[in-house]
Amino acid sequence: MMKSILLVLVTIAALGSLSACNTVHGFGKDVQKLGDKIEGAAQK
Length: 44
Prior knowledge:
- The chain is an all-alpha fold and 44 residues long.
- The protein is 95% helix and 0% strand.
- The N and C termini lie far apart (65 Å).
- InterPro entries: Entericidin.
- Belongs to the EcnA/EcnB lipoprotein family.
């Protein structure tokens, strides 16, 4: 019983970290796009 609970907790933690990684990656892309727009506006 204890091993099952531990396995479920480890699985949830692993899935949570993977989804957080995806979120951070998406946020990085958004920041990059914003930086490109600012750079383009500054060059005009």
